Amino acid sequence: MGYVCERCGDLLDVVIGDVEVDGWERFRGREWGVWRYRELLPVDHTRKVSIREGGTPLIPCPKLAEWVGVKELYVKFEGANPTGSFKDRGMTVGVTKALEFGARGVICASTGNTAASLAAYAARAGLRCLVAVPEGAIALGKLLQAIAHGALVVKVQGNFDDALSLVMEAASRLGLYILNSLNPWRLEGQKTLAFELAEELGHDIQVAVPVGNCGNISAIWKGFKELHQLGLLDGLPRMIGIQAEGAPPFAELVKNGGDVLKPVENPETIATAIRIGRPVNWKKALRAVRESEGVVETVSDEEIMDAQKALARLEGIGVEPASAASVAGVKKLSELGEIEKDRRIVCVCTGHLLKDPNPELFHPYMEITVKPELDDLMEKLSHL
Ligand SMILES: Cc1ncc(COP(=O)(O)O)c(C=O)c1O
């Protein structure tokens, strides 16, 4: 049930051994979603804890493509998962594994979405659930989800990194199984996003992902590599990681060409989901970016909010701020000439708009108050 290699101290990685997958035909005809690819998931699927996660929409976005300045852009809308974020892909596998290990309860630190997702899957599995969140720093929708699904919410007087340190110390004392992205089984579920993209678009794409704890970008890259090794993909995509300017430890590492991550002590950004200063999966993510000849960029809160508005108003896609970072980053990289504008881009939009119900993000917005009378409505409209 460990997470760390006893010899080198690095996080464990799951290696898929000999699997017999002759071709894509194996999967076709099955329901879309994480478990479509069950041969490539190292868990007993007959005992899965599932709420039908994955199989999210891949949406062509011509107006957004024009806005960011590229030829063809798709949004992979992870907000359409059961609890509204990509975390559900990981939790269905991670919680199934927790039951396989005989865990009595589960625990995580969270900027919000992990807590919401774990609480739901733990409820379904009948496991106790404790979620540690930075006090006053998680979006309202996410907190409500954790509460609704019956988790014990521990508000930590510190940031996400402090909460994760506490969870890592407390888990064994409390007899709880950790389901943060340092858990390699959880990343196995998240890699299925790559399988879906590969099935729909092939390998010749650039995939932009918002980066916080560096788990998702690592998992997606692992998924593509496995398909390539199995002979199901002829080539590999290019990975693009986007961080917030106020929480940029991984971007700084890549840009400086270094090999050791320097933590950011007080990360700050409106995109609370990626407000992380000490990402645990940075080594895996570094491999993803380097092996794919990818790129990492940072974006300001203003750029994130502009992208969130563009997604909502040009394409009808409502995402939370962290998710919009992928689009904001692609726009910036396009302006800097650092992406291939003629090669298809997929922006992974990781969480739903309703997670962070904050109208201030959309300022200025239009709103009027009227009496329930036509004359009053017409009068007020005439002033707009
Ligand atoms: C909406 C959203 N986007 C992106 C991320 C970052 O993913 P990762 O921490 O795996 O890098 C998170 C993580 O909490 C998230 O909730």
Report on this structure.
- The structure is a single chain.
- With 384 residues, this protein is of the alpha/beta class.
- The protein has 13 helices and 10 strands.
- Helix 2 packs across helix 6, helix 7 crosses helix 8 and helix 11 (301-314) crosses helix 12 (321-336).
- The radius of gyration is 21 Å and the shape is globular.
- The protein starts with 57 loop residues before the first strand and ends with a helix.
- The relative contact order is 0.14.
- The structure holds pyridoxal-5'-phosphate.
- The site of pyridoxal-5'-phosphate has 19 residues, from helix 3, helix 8 and helix 12.
Globally, the shape reads globular
The first-level CATH class of the largest domain is given as: Alpha Beta
How many discrete structural domains? 2
Spatial strand arrangement across the major sheet = 1-2-10-7-8-9
> Helical stretch count?
13
Q: Which architecture of the largest domain does the CATH hierarchy give at level 2?
A: 3-Layer(aba) Sandwich
Gyration radius over CA: 21 Å
List keywords for this structure.
384 residues, alpha/beta, Rossmann fold, 2 domains, 6-stranded mixed sheet, 4-stranded parallel sheet, 38% helix, binds pyridoxal-5'-phosphate
Structural topology:
Blueprint lengths: L57 E3 L1 H7 L4 E5 L9 H14 L4 E5 L3 H13 L2 E7 L5 H9 L3 E5 L3 H15 L2 E2 L5 H7 L1 H10 L4 E5 L4 H15 L8 E7 L4 H8 L25 H10 L3 E5 L1 H14 L6 H16 L8 E5 L24 H9 L2
Parallel strand pairs: 2-10, 3-4, 3-6, 4-5, 7-8, 7-10, 8-9
Antiparallel strand pairs: 1-2
Helix pairs in contact: 2-3, 2-6, 3-4, 6-8, 7-8, 8-10, 11-12
The protein binds pyridoxal-5'-phosphate.
Pyridoxal-5'-phosphate binds next to helix 3, helix 8 and helix 12.
